[in-house]
From TrEMBL:
PANTHER family: AMINE OXIDASE, AMINE OXIDASE [FLAVIN-CONTAINING] B. SUPFAM superfamilies: FAD-linked reductases, C-terminal domain, FAD/NAD(P)-binding domain. InterPro entries: Amino_oxidase, FAD/NAD-bd_sf, Flavin_MAO. One of its GO terms (molecular function) is oxidoreductase activity. This is Amine oxidase. It holds the Pfam family Amino_oxidase.
């Protein structure tokens, strides 16, 4: 390959693709609109209290018994894992005006998800260490991708200060939510209508979701035989799990039942107030005065979601590789969890799609 492959997006798919090219001694450039790597993988610390740990505001688990690609990658990178804490009773919250009900959990430990010590960001950081730093360009937004009659590709980008640059390449991997491609990147010649329709209909995973993590000095709920698991129809959190690190502080995280439009109308501080009140109702006085509540609303993240993602989606059948790219076939490749039909929405899907895109490019260049 005379020109470096351009990878759009520095999430898990994009970084895995870059690491695979690097292993082969091939050059690539990873272009990321954000000012950080990781995409929808985000592990955050409490400001000025990093000793409490890092907490996942994006993906949290993987399942090694079913997901061999991520399991092998985590092992090869020598990352430390632990099984999700579910030991103890769960709580059912059916009504806002009544206390929660305590229930016994019957489960098999083999069915539990596995977490990474230090948060899922540890996987992102470890992959980035395998890639030469100059290959990753942050705050670089792809605006247009053009192909001339000879099949040469020019990628037009806009830097943080507004400067516009052109880059040459023979292949592009689009490792970002398909709807962002359809909305924000212009193609010349245009993408085929069938393909464009397909990527517009692929809902962005987590695009309507938000997560909150409440951090405490210790996982006090375990002392009374509770697992931290809650199912609620009263809200605002409809599912709550133990998010504590392996030792030290305690944490509870939850997914919201409040629609994204309502969350955005209330604003982050009001949403966090509702979360704090719900946790006190569920877990009592020990839940008062958490050290912090971390909050991330993915539906308002313009580098993740578009307006169409604001409603919870039902069109799971749309996931998988887009149809033929027409003139762009063997030039543009899609990666990301939405483009994997078997493991869509999982980190496994993101990794498998990256490997597939890289293998296609390597095969083309070996001819």
């Amino acid at each position: 390959m005379n020109e470096p492959v351009i990878i759009v997006g520095a999430g898990l798919s994009g970084l895995r693709a870059a690491s695979l090219f690097t292993e082969q001694g091939l050059s690539c450039k990873v272009l990321e609109a954000r000012d950080r790597i990781g995409g929808r993988v985000l592990s955050a610390s409490v400001p000025n209290q990093k000793n409490l740990g890092r907490f996942d505001l994006g993906p949290t688990w993987f399942w090694p018994q079913n997901e061999s690609v991520i399991d092998e990658l985590v092992k090869s990178l020598k990352l430390e894992t632990f099984v999700q804490q579910n030991q103890g009773d769960m709580l059912m919250e059916r009504f806002q005006t009544k206390p929660p009900e305590r229930c016994v959990i019957e489960e098999h430990i083999d069915a539990r998800g596995v977490r990474l010590t230090g948060g899922m960001q540890s996987l992102i950081d470890a992959l980035a260490e395998k890639i030469p730093a100059e290959m990753i360009q942050l705050e670089t937004r792809v605006k247009e991708i053009c192909m001339d009659k000879a099949g040469e590709i020019t990628v037009t980008v806009e830097r943080a200060g507004g400067k516009v640059e052109n880059m040459r390449t023979a292949s592009v991997i689009l490792a970002l939510p398909p709807r962002l491609v359809a909305r924000h990147i212009k193609f010349s010649p245009a993408l085929p209508t069938e393909l464009l329709t397909d990527i517009k209909e692929k809902p962005t995973w987590m695009g309507s979701q938000a997560k909150a993590v409440a951090i405490f000095d210790r996982p006090f709920w375990r002392e009374s035989g509770l697992s931290g698991l809650v199912l609620s129809s009263a809200g605002p959190l409809q599912e709550i799990y133990d998010a504590s690190p392996t030792n030290g502080s305690g944490a509870l995280f939850g997914f919201f039942g409040i629609p994204s439009e309502a969350r955005q109308h209330m604003g982050p501080e009001k949403v966090k107030e509702l979360v704090a009140n719900q946790l006190v109702k569920l877990f009592g006085k020990d839940a008062e005065n958490p050290r912090a509540i971390l909050y991330k609303d993915w539906s308002s993240d313009l580098n993740t979601a578009v307006e169409e993602d604001s409603s919870p989606f039902k069109n799971y059948a749309s996931y998988g590789q887009p149809p033929s790219a027409g003139d762009w076939e063997e030039k543009v490749f899609f990666a990301g969890t939405e483009t994997n039909s078997q493991y869509s929405g999982h980190l496994e899907g993101a990794l498998q799609s990256a490997e597939q895109a890289v293998n296609k490019i390597l095969a083309l260049n070996s001819k």
